[in-house]
Amino acid sequence: MKDIAVFESVERELNRQRNNIELIASENFVSPEILELAGTVLTNKYAEGYPGKRYYGGCKFVDEVETLAKERLCEIYGAEYANVQPHSGAQANTAVYLALLNHGDKVLGMSLADGGHLTHGHPLNYSGINYDFYSYGVSKETETIDYEDFKKKCQEIKPKLVVAGASAYSRTIDFEFMAKCAHEVGAIFMVDMAHIAGLVAAGLHPSPFPHADVVTTTTHKTLRGPRGGVIMCKEKYAADIDRAVFPGMQGGPLMHIIAAKAACFYEAMQPEFKEYAMQVIKNAKTLENVLKEEGFRLVADGTDNHLILIDVKASCGISGKKAERLLDEINITANKNAIPFDSEKPFKASGIRVGTPAMTTKGFMEEDFREVGKIIAYRLKNEETDEIKEECLKRVKALTDKIEMYHDIKYI
Ligand code: PLP
Which CATH number covers residue 151? Predict the structure, then answer.
């Protein structure tokens, strides 16, 4: 019997995804093929272990799938070894810590307040609870990573592991320099490239390879795959990483998701993916330009990648929380975000984070993002009135009506 309540909610979410302007920088829309693979019968299969060394029978075909995923991932990034089993980005990072660190070891990661991720040492996260995390951040003047301070911290702290990568950082990261500083003090250098993995795959952000010893990423952001995580590493860490993922942290891998990851890597190898990633950056540049023309202050003065942090407090005198709500009400989805040296608490925040990956997948080009920037400005810089809200809703609808997405999907 069909569970109507759940299917109806999923149908409503499908319509939200069809009709909204999705600017959450960490989200994307997978292809119909990836969606199909994520819903295949592979969800039924237990496959603890790794291809050729499983703890269950009947793994011949899922072995084929996982081997393909591993080979493709190594090929895209030029990695020596890949583990494609982590259920998420957080679990990929946790597995790396479990593999390479002992309880209480010193680690240097980017401060969450400056754009880092929870798993890079937040006191309430597994990372901050179990290891002695220190943080580096951005300079007050440029709001870009303070590389000299980073180098000094490496030398003073002498961490066992250095973590690079961020969740809300709009500028190019100099992995080569960071690796050099880490290696000079004998630290292992890890890059969490979750946000920029698609740009790296397309050759549009400098690669963490060959500088990094270990690289983690989610597969669902700019890489445009299913929700999940992966780890790549130098061959010498491969056995430790595998052991940390299974049996260290997880039981059976999600084979349906690994199949969808394999298809994501296939798509990322096609020439069309490079065009897509180029358009993501062009669209972000366009949005940057419009927002600046409209008088907004942007953190780090703009973007080199797929995302922009808007200081809405300085620009319009409102909190990130309020800006998120105002945009939500006109069917533009973004998230409040702390900005560096924020005077507001994270739940209120002074900024919002906007990104172009999802709408670029839907087919938005520069002219569409010009209009998106203008709608954002019109909504946030004016009084909260019904007339303005209605006008914005109409303008959003005019943009989204042009696009058909997942048109043959129906859940009820
Ligand atoms: N690492 C970075 C840099 C991220 O931005 C994120 C998610 O936003 C993660 C890790 C965690 O990924 P997940 O939500 O899949 O656990």
Answer: 3.40.640.10
Contact status, residue 86 vs residue 229, Cβ threshold 8 Å: yes
| Same domain? 238 vs 322 | no
295 is in an annotated binding site: no
DSSP state of 355: E
Substitution site in 110, 163, 218, 264 for ligand 1 pocket (most atoms within 8 Å of beta carbon): 218
Q: Whose CA is nearest to atom 13 of ligand 1?
A: 89
Q: How far apart are CA 161 and CA 154, in angstroms?
A: 10
What span, in angstroms and rounded, lies between the C-alpha atoms of 344 and 329? 23
- Strands (E) across 3-89 are located at 21-22, 49-50, 53-54, 81-83
Residue located via tokens 């973590």: 163
What is the value of pTM for the model shown? 0.97
Q: Which atom of ligand 1 is nearest to the CA of 228?
A: 15
Give the pLDDT band of residue 348 (cuts 50, 70, 90). very high
120 falls within a domain: yes
- Please report the pLDDT score of residue 180 as a whole number: 98
Per the structure, how many domains does the chain have? Answer: 2
Which ligand 1 atom sits closest to the C-alpha of 88?
15
Q: How far is the CA of 348 from the centre of ligand 1 (A)?
A: 21
pLDDT band for 227, please (50, 70, 90 cuts): very high
Give Cα separations from 255 to 50, 91, 200, 269 (angstroms). Answer: 11, 16, 25, 21
| β partners of residue 352 | 310, 336
The per-residue pLDDT for 122 is 95
Cα 208 to ligand 1 centroid, rounded to whole Å: 17
Asked if residue 112 belongs to a known ligand binding site, the reply is yes
Report how far ligand 1's centroid is from the alpha carbon of 397 (Å).
31
pLDDT at 391: 98
Query: Is position 2 within any domain?
Result: no
